[in-house]
Q: What sequence folds into this?
């Protein structure tokens, strides 16, 4: 019988395949796949990147499963595990950056970690729009609420954690309109695995309505605003994101870890949108944590 961690890795690979089959159809292209080996232990991963197509300017769906001989000091402190403890980590992480400013960026992650006698699951999904339609944001959150109810989880708790986590403190601003976030889940292993796996398998249903916006007309001014807002996304991933920090600290593959960054973005000094504009409505209305359901 396979060890539990090997079962997790196998099912996570299935989630990656499931999501990529959906994206192949929506984007009209296949992905570039890089298989890599973990340089500081055993295992490795499959990085799948989309760099052009009908929908995506850049996107990636990563799978990794690594066995390290020594937990980094910074990670050991965060997890309250003795430095140098052998560890295992596996997960699927995706970030999609569409061409069209009307289609939102989205992130999803599911992960499993163990070191010594400690194990936990984590993950989540969150939406970062540029020109959001309220009905679609409400529908996104309603789908997540129904999913949590089906899986006997507390949507309200996971939504609040998402609002708190995906927040650019230096900007005093949420990254997007939220979703779900959970970490350090230590319930029965099979139940926790089923929960995170089902979230990964739900992804096509969550993103299909947004993918349909790929052909909506947009102006150059809207494109420039999209590039400006992407810079805030990059700031969060480089400054706060736990997965990015752990991956770099543990000696993971940098190209795969930094796949989440947008292909093009711009930093505009002291950008201020015109009052009453769609750009102002993003920050004044949508980037305020609220009960969307």
A:
């Amino acid at each position: 019988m396979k060890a539990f961690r090997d079962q997790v890795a196998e099912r996570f690979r299935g989630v990656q395949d499931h999501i990529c089959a959906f994206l192949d159809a929506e984007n009209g292209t296949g992905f570039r796949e890089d298989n890599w080996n973990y340089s500081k232990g055993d295992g490795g991963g499959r990085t799948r990147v989309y760099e052009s197509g009908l929908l995506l300017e850049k996107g990636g769906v990563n799978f990794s499963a690594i066995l390290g001989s020594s937990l980094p000091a910074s990670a050991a402190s965060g997890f309250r595990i003795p430095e140098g403890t052998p560890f295992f980590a596996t997960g699927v992480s995706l970030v999609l950056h569409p061409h069209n400013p009307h289609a939102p960026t989205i992130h999803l992650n599911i992960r499993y970690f163990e070191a010594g006698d400690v194990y936990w699951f984590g993950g989540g999904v969150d939406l970062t729009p540029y020109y959001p339609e309220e009905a679609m944001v409400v529908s996104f959150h309603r789908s997540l609420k129904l999913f949590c109810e089906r899986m006997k989880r507390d949507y309200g708790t996971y939504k609040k954690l998402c609002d708190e986590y995906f927040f650019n403190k230096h900007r005093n601003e949420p990254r997007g309109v939220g979703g779900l976030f959970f970490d350090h889940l230590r319930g029965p292993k099979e139940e926790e695995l089923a929960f995170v796996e089902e979230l990964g398998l739900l992804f096509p249903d969550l993103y299909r309505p947004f993918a349909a916006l790929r052909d909506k007309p947009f102006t150059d001014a809207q494109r420039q605003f999209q590039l400006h807002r992407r810079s805030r996304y990059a700031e969060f991933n480089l400054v706060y994101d736990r997965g990015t920090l752990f991956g770099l600290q543990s000696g993971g593959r940098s190209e795969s870890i930094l796949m989440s960054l947008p292909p093009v973005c711009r930093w505009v000094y002291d950008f201020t949108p015109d009052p009453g504009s769609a750009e102002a409505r993003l920050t004044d209305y949508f980037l305020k944590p609220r009960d969307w359901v």
Notes: The longest helix spans residues 4-27.
